[in-house]
Amino acid sequence: MKTKIFTMSNQHRDKDSLQEAGEILRRGGLVAFPTETVYGLGGDALNRESSRKIYAAKGRPSDNPLIVHICRLEDMDALVRQVTPEARAVAEAFWPGPLTLILPKSDLVPYETTGGLDTVAIRFPSHPVARQLIDCAGGYVAAPSANLSGKPSPTVAKYVIQDMDGRVDAIIDGGEVGIGLESTIIDMTVQPPQILRPGYVTRQMLQQVLGQVDVDATILSNESGQAPKAPGMKYRHYAPQGEMCIVAGDQEQVSAYINEQISRDKAQGERVGVICTDETAGTYRDAVIKNAGSRGDEESIARHLYTILREFDDEQVTRIYSEDFAPEGLGQAIMNRLLKAAGHKRIEL
Ligand code: AMP
Ligand code: MG
User: Does the predicted model carry a pTM greater than 0.90?
Assistant: First the structure.
């Protein structure tokens, strides 16, 4: 398949290209597009064949449900059996934006889209290109992240093209995304509502609207013995090719320890990468050093994380050490993705 590439920005959206991409989706084709979280791989959410194609293009297990993207708040109503007052309140508070709601699905949504579940995941993104594309496509676009299954989600079109060229009908290159981590997922079918995947919208923010909000115990630990409630969270995910370890402790000790590991690993022929911050970037030597930004600016760390993991793959890094972050606020999402990338390997000095 020849993949068509459209290029545009939020400020300069190309109406004709968006119409054409919307037509491709209406006809059952696949289009990758930017959102404010990560790039999505879109298909018509109400067409079971399109959903099958998405799984095939990603190499994703078909029991891992897709998020349905909408471009008007009221379009949620057709997708669900019933919109509870809590679901409406949380949608009004955070949409358009990086929050996905799990609700009981209506008959309109095929089981191919929900991975066989009776619930549906819904999000109304804020990214202007995404919104206009969804509108041109008829209003309901199923879109998982636009990476091959198992790879980190793409935050720039270059990595969408690397994974999806020849596998999808079109890719919209809209530049770098703003947030860089996937949406927060909250299950609204349980009482109290439960966060299944942490993201930019934090537990504290949700609690202001919903009162008590629980967090799936598997988010920061793999020792609970339970399966994660979002099927996708059980898969090895977000993972670079190199073997990764998170190192926690006093800043100077962490730098000293990682430098020791660099020398030792290099002597064994490994190519070593380090994920560090503005505060520590100068303390490492002799490795592929990636600075995610200042510790005081978690949004910068979130935005750079996946690109850094991808760059390690590009540079054939075989061992990765990352500094640790406090798992509060946006730090919870950052640590969740880092721990998954590291297969939960973390040492405390
Ligand atoms: P992605 O689209 O790649 O960001 O992944 C979507 C995530 O949403 C996966 O982890 C899915 O397992 C999760 N998800 C989608 N639909 C549901 C649902 N109905 N119930 C629970 N988790 C869901
Ligand atoms: Mg994904």
Answer: yes
